[in-house]
User: What shape does this take?
Amino acid sequence: MTALQHRPEEPIRSSSRIPFPVVDEVARHCHQDAEPETVHMEIHLPGRLDPARLRQAFGKALHRHPRTLMRETPGPWYRRRYEWELTAEPDVEAIRFPPPEQDALRHARERALDCVPPLSASPPIRLEAVSGDDGTVLLLTVNHTALDGPACLRVMATMAELYGGRDNLAAAPPVRTSDPERDALPIPSTWGPPARVAPGTPATSPGNGLIVTELTVPHRPKGSRYTVNDQLMVATALLIAHWNREHGVRPRTIRITMPVDDRPRDADMPIGNGTRLVEVPFTPNELDATDLPGLLHRTTLRTRALKSRPRPQLGYGASLLTAPWAPVAARAALTRGLRRAAAPWTSTTLLSNIGRIPYPMDFGEEAGRAHAVWYSAPARMPRGLTFTTASTAGRLHLCVRWSRTLLGPGDGAHLRDLFEHYLHTTEVTAP
Assistant: This one.
C-alpha cells in the first residue's frame, strides 16, 4: 500500500496531503455516474445497538484510522496529480439510523449500490444502522476510489471494539506450506481475449443489482492441499462455462480476477486500496473434463504461484498512466480511452474471497457478535459480474452483484443457484 497511514497518536492537520496512489487515481479517472464504484458491506448482529454509543464508537474508529478522514483536494484542470486532504474532523455526518420499516434493509442495499459517497466531503463513507425484529444490520457504503473491502472490515472491527469494550484482535492467518510443484506448473497463457459473460435479460435502468445468500462452507477432506478459495474459484469457472453454454456462446478461456491482500490485519493495517489483482485462467478443455479432483489440484498450484509472484497492484502499465507526465485531465481521457480499447481483454469475472472473518466483531453483551458478514465489489462493464464471499460463524456468505446493462434479477438468481450447485460438486467429488 502506497498511501500514508498515520498512527493514532499523531495529530492530523487539515493541511496534510497525500498524492493519489495508483489504484485510487485509476478509479478516479474511470468514474461513471451510471455505475457507481461502491464497496457494500453489511454486518448482521443478533441484538440492538444504542445510537449514541454507536455514533461515538464510529467517530472514534475514524480517528483511530485517520486515512478514512479525507477528501479530494480541489484543483485546476492542469494539475499533475489528484491529492487527498486529511481532515481533523468529518465534514459530514456519516452515520444514519433509518426508520425501522419493513423494507428498510432492502432500501439501504439499494442506496449502497446506487448512491456513492462523494469524494469532496470527508469521510467518503456512509454507515446505516438498520434495526429489525431479528436484530441490527450495520450497512457500510464506501467510495471504492478511497477504500477496499479489507480496509473497511478493519475499520468496522475497530468500531466493534470501541463500542463493546471487548478485544477484537485479528486471528492469526492460516499457515500455507510450500509446494515444490508450484514453480514448475505451466499456467495457461493470458494473451488473447477471454470469455465474456453472456448477456441475459438486462434491466431498463443502469446501475448494479445484488443478491445475497448464505451457504454451507464446502467440506475439504483432511489433508487436502487445496483451499476453500480454490473450491470457490473452480465453482465460479464451472458456473460461467455452464451459463455461456446455456446461451449458445462458443467456449473460450475463462479468466477470473482474484484480489490478493498481503497487509497485516492488526490495528496498524494500512487503510486504503491495498489489494493487488491477479488473473487465474481456465481453458475450455479443463472445464469440459470430469476430473474435478485434478482441476482442484491444478487450481491450487496455479493460485499459489500467482500469489507468490511480485506484481504491481494493477500491473505495470497503470504505473505509467498515473505518472505525472501530463495534467490529470489529459491522463484521465487517455486512461478512459485505453480502458474502452482494452475491454475485450478484461477478465471474465471477479471472485473476491475474504475468507474466514479474522475479527470477532463482538459488539458487547446486548448487541452480540456478528453472525453474518456480506460484502460486494463493483460490477461495472465490461465484466458486469462479481462474486464476493466471506465466512462467518461456520457459514459462507455470498454476494452476486451484476451490471443491470448485462443481467436482470432472474439472471442473478440463476447464477446464485449455479454457484451453489458447482460449489457442492467440488465438495462431493473431491478426493
Notes: Confidence is low (pLDDT under 50) at residues 1-15. The first strand starts at residue 17 and ends at 19.
